[in-house]
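Anyone else keep sequences and structure tokens together like this?

Example one:
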Amino acid sequence: MKEIPIDSIPFINTELEIQQIAMYPVITEDEKLAVKEKLNEFRERILNGDKFSTLAVLYSEDPGSAKKGGELGLVSRSELVPEFAAVAFNIKEGEVSRIVETEFGYHILQLIEKKGELVNVRHILLSPKASFEQMLNLEKKLDSIAYDIRNGTITFEAAADKYSEDSQSKYNGGLMTNPYTGTSKFETRQIDPTSYYTIKDLDIGEVSKTFQTRDEKGKIVFKFMKVKSKSKPHKANLKDDYQRIQDDALANKKQNAVDSWVVKKLETTYIHIDESYNNCKFKNKNWVKLQ
């Protein structure tokens, strides 16, 4: 078997395995009601002549669309959460919907246009907020759990199983999964800034302080973390990086199979390349055939 040239061996950056225990503030019915009343007020203002887009810019809590007047652009049903899609595809152009509840919070929608299986809507998102007292009590609870872990009263893994509200890591001893790779190892650039700032100076096995951040859906969450392992930058080797090397080899094998299939299909398949792409360099030169 041929050896891999030294200069072809990939360099592995520092990687960490991180455990966490996360809990969410309890949202009361009064807090939910306050948000609904505010959205109903916005809806009445729009029906009485105020511009939906102006209110979205001023009040919507969706950072991606608020600055665009709440507009999402043309999207398919599969790109929307089911509750949102059900309303977006069933209101008339210009119509302002009733309140819609999703995992992100509460919305009102206005249909801009519908093209086949695509819709473009504006929306205003508001999410109920827990009171300061509730968040303070939650922080104290997590501090108490972390104290017990540090003193050996309970293991981190048992505490994660008992207390953590993060469904993805709860039953795995709090061990987080990297969404970019599907493994438990994170490069520092793949860790959200708030979490990284909290753990960057921790020793292996050390439990962090409790801190507040937001999850991938924008919800406030309190958590503390532990660094389970931390590797130094190094050249890839079979002892430390077998799984990564195996995964990369499999991915490369799959890509080669796809490339071979494409080359074979190009012999019998009509391909139209728009003139605007005539000067582009394609990975497979057979995409552009001489006429």
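And example two:
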Amino acid sequence: MKFPNIKGKTVNGDRRTLPQDFEGQLNVVVLAFTQYQQEDVDSWMPFLDKVQRENRHVNVYEVPVVERMFFFQRMMLNHWMYSGIPDVDARNRTITLYTNVSAFLKSLNLTHIETIYTLLVDKEGKVYLRTSGAYTENNASDLMLKLRLLQPQNA
């Protein structure tokens, strides 16, 4: 399975094309679909921050996936996210995708937007792992196992 080629913007307003602009050899991508899922996203962050600190080849991204909106609506949402994310690093790693959500889900074989998904993706877009929901020890263990198997020789 491949991560779809799609354009987005960081909370700081920098344009990104995914998966090409993922900076890590491996990238943990946390997909969320509603603001109410932020608590589930946040449940992953202490663990994922540690993973990124301890693995130079891994980068972490929060990716809100939102249905296409009119310009003014996008501007308002971007402003709210910018105001709500004071940390510069978090703003840079948060890439909002305004897209056809159904088509996006289908491209990744995801079934619904009622939960978040955490993916392990390489720079070419190959998806190695997909979990759903808030952080659990089982999901974290699955991710760490896959990271160990894929760890580059020089890391």
